[in-house]
Queue: 3 jobs
Job 1
Amino acid sequence: MKVHMTNIHGMTKNSVAQIAQNMTSQFGKQLGFNEIGIYNYPISVDSPTELSKRFDGMVASVSNNDIVIYQAPSWNTIEFDHAFVDHLKRYSKLKLIIFIHDVPPLMFAGNRYLLPTFIDFYQKADLLIVPSEQMYHFLRENGLAEKKYVVQHMWDHPLDANMLYDTTEIKRLNFAGDPTKFTFVQDWQHDTPLHLFASKKPTATDLNLIYEGWLNDAELCIKLSKNGGFGLVWNDGGYTQEYTSKYISYKLGTYLAAGLPVIIPRGISNEELISKNNLGFAVDSITEALEKLERLTQEEYLQYKNAVKEFAPLLQQGYFTKQALVQAVFEVLQA
């Protein structure tokens, strides 16, 4: 028996979807898993026969009785995902684990109509790796049959802790994200400046932003640790808020791995984990966050900071991902 894992390639260098899959694949290789590469391309260029031949080449190392961990979505459309998994199912006694990274019908309101198609795809798995308990129960409420599942809980962020600074600056807010996707950034006129890490700067000139630009992974973590303060995980409410109550934010792991406590919106899927480990605090609004930040003492900040320092090695060394992968293989092979 061999274990294989899909991994996407060919997206932009700052694609979080690709970064997350590539990272997961690296941890899989450390566990002895084989990679099945999936290149990002317009699948309409392939006829059904050509697509089948493509799949044959991609799964040449797969045999009967193997395990395949499918990182989903592939971002080559849900039709591609269905077709690829159906191709894999031709192997006798193959076990399929679907590792759910994102659920596009929950990410974008315009894609909600696709939810049944995605749930039909998840039905094909022998076991699911889900971001949170909330996500599993949502899928069950929307038609998913009862299945074995493993909860991921948190995105890891591998890095060398020795390269980080240990700054004790309190009243500093850091946010990594595309400002065009987060309207609160475009309205940031608060007294406390927001350190923005993004490839594009908002065009408005009356915002209290300190633009840090786009940095590669190592540079970002070093700069975050040097800035100190808090990492901000936020959404704009509405449809986005519904999704954050079920998925897990990649940037949350980035902030914590870089040594920063976090400020999160109340109701996100791993709020309890953050609270239990004293890794930051949850609020209902940006205004509340800034008020709490203003009242925060040096002693209180150091308590958060030290708690993060204790917790961060789990993320820096990939233990959440490795645990989920090993547990998934362990569970799928049992009755």
Job 2
Amino acid sequence: MREIKDKAAIAAALELIWVTFLQFEAPDYSDEGIQAFRSFIDDEDIIASLEFWGDYAGDELRGTIAANVDRRHICCFFVKARYHRQGIGRALWEHLLNSSDHQVYTVHASPYAVPVYHKLGFVEMSEEQTADGMRFERTKDHGIQDR
């Protein structure tokens, strides 16, 4: 597990995010939602405001998690398809937990990801919503306090 800082590594993380999004999340989104997500990950100012971590096997990035700089909100959390159900997502989440002292974390979970977040201890804060064509549930986890 390591922080992703340089431009090339961030570009690789964004490519992993996009490819995985298209495989698993885009089928639940309208064209507007797909374009809104693409615009989000293409926004250099937004990306520069995030902290990224990656799980690597040698030089291969297997999964990534990105949070806002105060580490309270998860903005992107993706694992390559062939590495699903191998504990990589949990390891990324636990790395975020262990590298931060916050007590509550939030995420806008896509329909595909809601069961994953439930397994990690997140609970719904709202019913499903749609904004800019993107479907999500606002969820939260109480972090270290409840562990």
Job 3
Amino acid sequence: MQFTKKNHKNFGRVCLHITDRGTAIAVSKLVGASLQLQHCAYFNSFDLSDNPELIANFIQQNNLAGANCSLILCSSEYQLLLTEAPSVEADEMCQALWWKVKDLVGFDVENAQIDFIDLPEDSNRQQNRRVYAVIADKAKVRAKIALAEALGLNPVTVEIPETALLHLIADLCSDLVGTSILYLDPEQSLLLLMSEGQMYLSRTLQYNYLDRMEAVVLDLQRSMDYYESQLGKSPCLKVLLLPQQADDSAIMQTLRSNMGAEISSVDLNALITADTELNIELQQHCFIAVCGALRSNQKAKK
């Protein structure tokens, strides 16, 4: 999102992903020209209610005061809307999008922060160029920034889970052949359709996938059909599940039985360089935070 503050420590960054269920925190360090994961932790909401100082203690124990911080919004704090891009210059896009989306969001757009995700030129072969408008509740964004500052951190970036995921998964989708990225979350899963490292389609699955696995299959099939028939892209032949899923899990077995595509799950340990190995449970809680911490761009978008 659009705000910039002077960087204090240039060794990496801290990323906070705060949801109703708990807070994930990931810390990267700059080693040469690359970012590596240094710390990763998850504090559930029950523990935090009993001991609100857990995150502050973590920051103090790991000498993170003054570190640059990325903040990842949760689903209740923003909306993502696909719309035709206004015919304006890039620096005028946010203002122009305001007029297009002001009647479509579920909160007062007068108090909204607006950004956008540019889509590839061939993302809509029948109409003009399209973008995803990102509309965030400004009050909730400010509250997150204030929380980071109260913890002694230096917030430099606010982003959404969809863009955070792209920091790590874009390179996994470098082929022309389409790849479906399915980020699984008990409350709200994300489905991204990728080709040549670029996102063409994003969908939100607003149900608990554990209770509705047949619905996941149907949403995947419909999205992949749309990607091929309406966007004119090569078929999606791979489905990557995030965070890491056990090979014998119900969701892996269901997808393999019903999808005509290669189904695999991503182990963060094979994807990143980290000081310690991350078990499946930690990956499932902290995947988004790790993606945000390993954002290679050290400056907030202007």
